[in-house]
């Protein structure tokens, strides 16, 4: 074939001798339906293809043919329009003429390649240029395939099918990569929690001693100051006697009392000590919770029916449930039992349910479903509450992570739950959609594996 | 309400942190006569020199752990009531010490000041009870011996010897 300078003439002959009526019969390629990157698939599951050619007849013919093969065709009259339509529709497959006004096919390919996209774009250059250097230029620009015009429709069909196959492989690869990324993130997350647990254990121990004597000192000071006050009052009762003997000294004492505001001190010392002791008690509780998270304490195991625990937890929280008129249902057909530390598991149920109730609005629903497999029991706690946003979801088990305003809630509830469930050899998974609700799935082994908890000192 | 200095029970506090000892002194000085030590060997020395009713020791200390110290204290002064004072991570040490019969009670850090005072008061009361019982048993055993060796025993000599034996075992245990 010779180099064709008149591309108008070449275009018009691109599909010579193959009327649209015949193309309709060559429609075996239903295989490429429904198997394309989800981002590029339309609601009717047909693959989008962007077709650009400045010749009207070629456009008509190609459109009929591509549509006949089950593709969703987006038609562009020139390179500029093709680029705009590409940005709008993000098609996975592009079939473009080379020589076009405003923006030629080569430049279109370069732009597509430079454009960040969440899926691969397979580009076929369709042209009347046929020299080897043209092919090299097209491939250099980033085209995947190069078709010389006046190729027959069967060749076009198999070339496009090849493109579709590569797109499918690319999609699979992308999926696998996503899975690997997710698994990696989960791994990092669980490692982070383990190291946080060790940190918490160390902290709990180190903080304990100073808390112990500071709390004790406060109690001692409170008692001793009240003794001093008692003595002081006894002296003050003698002020009249003093005034008789030495009026100046008595006045000086009264002035001293006033300048130090003795009456304020007498009124406020005890409340100040009480507030400090209270604050310290809170620190002590935080250390206690952190210790729980780090699983420092081992208590005795017992075999209990998980459904009973659920029902008693619901009963304990009834006042919160009634306040919001939440419909709570417990579905428990088999009432399975598990061997566990009942107090710890109760605490987990309590924390999870409180979170669910707090996420609920008026008259929302909470459903707790108890199920069992051979070796495990599972609990699904589903609420129709506000849900958790994607940014927060991966962090909910971290100690001190809370979405409540500062001062409300320490952010230790769920990290504690995580620690307890892990310690029992179980799993806890939270799924949530903002505005739809949250499901917490807890799976616990029926028999407690007696794995060593040494090393948590 | 405060006992006069001479009547106050003697208590030995052992902890390697001086701040803890100082703090405890502040709390307990009114009700008890206090002795303090920062190490196990120091504590044992005090125990040899003074009549101590109650010893309360921290578990985690260099040189000698609290449980070890109480084991040796039992040999030096068997009547002294022994209390182990532990952080959270030492539960195993407590269990071991309790099982070996070295500990009357244990207390976790951080402690509640009122609870601690109550615990020490009941420990000293316990010590007093034991002392009284010991005295009664000694008197009884002496009496048995004398009866058994005298004309009075008559046909009861065998019973008397048995009783003396039982009393001896009781006061040794």
Compact summary:
The complex is a heterodimer of chains A (457) and B (173). Chain A is α/β, with parallel strands linked by helices and 457 residues long. Helix content of chain A is 52%, strand content 16%.
Overall helicity of chain B: 40-55%
> What is the arithmetic mean of pLDDT of chain A?
81
- The protein's oligomeric status is heterodimer
CATH topology of the largest domain in chain B: Rossmann fold
Strand content of the residues of chain B, in percent?
5-15%
Helix coverage percent of residues of chain A?
40-55%
Assign the CATH superfamily of the largest domain in chain B: Response regulator
Could you give the order of strands across the largest sheet of chain B? 2-1-3-4-5
Explain this structure.
- The complex is a heterodimer of chains A (457) and B (173).
- Chain A is elongated and about 130 Å long.
- In chain A, helix 10 packs parallel to helix 14 (413-423).
- Chain A folds into three domains: 7-151, 3-Layer(aba) Sandwich (Rossmann fold); 186-293; 302-445, Heat Shock Protein 90.
- Helices cover 52% and strands 16% of the residues of chain A.
- Mean pLDDT of chain A is 81; it is low at 1-43 and 451-457.
- With 457 residues, chain A is of the alpha/beta class.
- Chain B folds into two domains: 10-129, Rossmann fold (3-Layer(aba) Sandwich), CATH 3.40.50.2300; 130-172, no CATH class.
- Chain B has six helices and five strands; from the N terminus they run βαβαβαβαβαα.
- Chain B has helices at 18-28, 40-49, 66-76, 91-99, 113-149, 157-172; strands at residues 10-14, 33-37, 54-58, 81-86, 105-108.
- In chain B, strands 2-1-3-4-5 form a five-stranded parallel β-sheet, with helices on both faces.
- In chain B, helix 2 (40-49) runs parallel beside helix 3 and helix 5 packs antiparallel against helix 6.
């Amino acid at each position: 074939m010779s180099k064709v300078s008149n591309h108008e003439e070449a275009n018009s002959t691109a599909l010579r001798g193959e009327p649209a009526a015949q193309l309709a019969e060559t429609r075996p390629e239903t295989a490429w339906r429904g198997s394309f990157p989800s981002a590029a698939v339309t609601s009717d599951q047909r693959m989008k293809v962007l077709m650009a050619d400045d010749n009207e007849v070629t456009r008509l013919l190609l459109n009929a043919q591509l549509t006949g093969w089950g593709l969703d065709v987006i038609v562009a009259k020139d390179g500029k329009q093709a680029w705009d339509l590409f940005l709008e529709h993000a098609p996975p497959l592009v079939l473009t003429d080379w020589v076009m006004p405003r923006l030629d096919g080569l430049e279109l390919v370069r732009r597509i390649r430079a454009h960040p996209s969440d899926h691969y774009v397979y580009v076929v250059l369709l042209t009347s240029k046929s020299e080897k250097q043209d092919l090299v230029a097209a491939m250099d620009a980033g085209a995947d395939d190069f078709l010389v015009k006046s190729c027959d429709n069967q060749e076009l069909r198999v070339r496009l099918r090849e493109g579709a196959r590569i797109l499918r492989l690319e999609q699979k690869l992308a999926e696998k990569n996503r899975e690997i990324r997710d698994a990696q993130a989960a791994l990092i997350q669980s490692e982070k929690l383990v190291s946080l647990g060790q940190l918490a254990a160390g902290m709990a121990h180190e903080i304990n001693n100073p808390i112990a004597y500071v709390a004790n000192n406060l109690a001692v000071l409170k008692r001793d100051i009240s003794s001093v006050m008692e003595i002081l009052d006894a002296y003050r009762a003698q002020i009249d006697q003093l005034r008789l003997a030495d009026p100046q000294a008595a006045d000086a004492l009264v002035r001293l009392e006033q300048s130090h505001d003795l009456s304020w001190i007498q009124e406020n010392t005890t409340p100040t000590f009480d507030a400090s002791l209270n604050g310290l008690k809170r620190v002590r509780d935080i250390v206690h919770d952190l210790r729980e998270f780090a699983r420092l304490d081992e208590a005795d195991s017992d075999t209990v029916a998980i459904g009973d625990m659920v029902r008693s937890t619901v009963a304990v929280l009834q006042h919160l449930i009634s306040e919001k008129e939440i419909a709570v249902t417990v579905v428990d057909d088999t009432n399975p039992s598990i061997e566990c530390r009942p107090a710890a598991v109760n605490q987990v149920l309590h924390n999870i349910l409180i979170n669910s109730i707090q996420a609920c609005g008026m008259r929302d629903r909470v459903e707790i479903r108890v199920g069992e497999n051979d070796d495990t029991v599972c609990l699904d706690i589903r609420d129709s509450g506000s849900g958790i946003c994607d940014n927060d979801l991966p962090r909910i088990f971290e100690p001190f992570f809370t979405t409540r305003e500062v001062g409300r809630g320490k952010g230790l509830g769920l990290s504690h739950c995580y620690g307890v469930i892990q310690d029992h050899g179980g799993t806890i998974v939270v799924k949530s959609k903002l505005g739809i609700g949250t499901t917490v799935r807890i799976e616990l082994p029926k028999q407690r594996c007696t794995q060593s908890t040494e090393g948590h000192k | 309400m405060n006992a006069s200095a001479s009547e106050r029970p003697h208590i030995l506090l052992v902890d390697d942190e001086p701040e803890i000892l100082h703090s405890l002194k502040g709390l307990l000085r009114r009700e008890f006569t206090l002795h303090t030590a920062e190490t196990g060997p120091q504590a044992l020395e005090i125990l040899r020199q003074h009549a101590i009713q109650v010893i309360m020791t921290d578990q985690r200390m260099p040189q000698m752990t609290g449980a070890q110290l109480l084991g040796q204290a039992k040999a030096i002064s068997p009547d002294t009531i022994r209390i182990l004072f532990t952080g959270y991570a030492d539960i195993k040490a407590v269990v071991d010490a309790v099982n070996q019969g070295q500990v009357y009670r244990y207390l976790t850090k951080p402690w509640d000041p009122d609870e601690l005072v109550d615990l020490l008061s009941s420990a000293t009361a316990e010590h007093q009870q034991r002392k009284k019982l010991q005295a009664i048993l000694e008197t009884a055993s002496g009496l048995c011996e004398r009866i058994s060796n005298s004309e009075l025993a008559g046909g009861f000599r065998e019973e008397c010897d048995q009783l003396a034996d039982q009393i001896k075992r009781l006061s040794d245990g």
